[in-house]
Write a structure and sequence with these properties.
This protein is mainly alpha-helical. It folds into two domains: 118 residues, no CATH class; 116 residues, no CATH class. It has five helices and two strands; from the N terminus they run αββαααα. The two termini are 38 Å apart. The model has no long low-confidence stretch (mean pLDDT 94). InterPro entries: PduO/GlcC-like_sf.
């Protein structure tokens, strides 16, 4: 439903023509609220509800001034969902422009959480991205099924490939080498902010986007292993 124009307004107090997600009683499901984390070990570093609302308003204002790339007629403004999360992944607030795609709600949240996760270099107490990724079990791939396929023995013939044998920690090592920063994503590293687009670029089979002869991004697969069904860290 339409958002309260006195809450979703620009710096001059003008309505942003924003919309919100509501429950069965028409109440805002994701109003701006204080963060649940303690960045740097200090509760005073956590975002406040006022700061969250400011971020939502600024993002929607930018969207209202932006040209959409996938809408017609040409010149139509961007239609998006905006989300703010804390380092625990908790939703602190959401809003959307008029006619923002429904699927964008999930996309927006995942992008916010991804950016927050990869921006975790320097986090302590076992919450740095490198430590969390190294704790994820190695992916397993099924080997090709013998041809011709016999439906009666298909399941019995399934086996796991021995090679290639990627590990999630291998992506961490590849990222650090690619960036030339040995403590990237580590608790010992300097705090660096990642955008969701940063992770996307580093996950491309050809880096950067455009030329088809570039090296694979460190979060992607090497030539001969990449496919739309096996893109790298995202699916592993």
């Amino acid at each position: 439903r339409p958002a309260d124009p006195t809450v979703f307004s620009d710096s001059n107090g003008n309505s942003l023509d924003a919309f919100i997600f509501v429950d069965e009683n028409n109440n805002n499901r994701y109003p701006a609220r204080d963060a649940t984390d303690t960045p740097g070990g200090l509760t005073t570093n956590a975002m406040t509800a006022v700061e969250v609302q400011t971020l939502l308003n600024e993002a929607i204002n930018v969207a209202n001034l932006s040209r959409a790339q996938i809408r017609v007629p040409v010149g139509t403004q961007a239609r998006v969902t905006t989300s703010v999360v804390d380092t625990n992944g908790e939703i602190l607030g959401m809003g959307r422009t008029r006619d923002g795609p429904i699927f964008g709600a999930d996309v927006s949240l995942q992008k916010a959480r991804t950016a927050t996760f990869f921006s975790g270099t320097g986090r302590l107490s076992g919450t740095a991205p490198a430590e969390l990724l190294r704790g994820v079990p190695a992916p397993k791939y099924l080997s090709p099924v013998p041809q011709p396929v016999d439906p009666t023995t298909l399941v019995a013939n399934l086996a796991v490939l021995d090679s290639p044998a990627p590990t999630i920690s291998g992506y961490v090592d590849a990222l650090q080498e690619f960036l030339g920063v040995r403590d990237a994503l580590e608790a010992t590293g300097a705090v660096v902010a990642f955008a969701d687009r940063s992770g996307g670029n580093l996950s491309r089979p050809n880096y950067p986007d455009g030329p088809d002869n570039g090296p694979p991004g460190p979060l992607s697969k090497p030539p001969g292993e990449w496919s739309v069904f096996s893109v790298g860290l995202q699916l592993d």
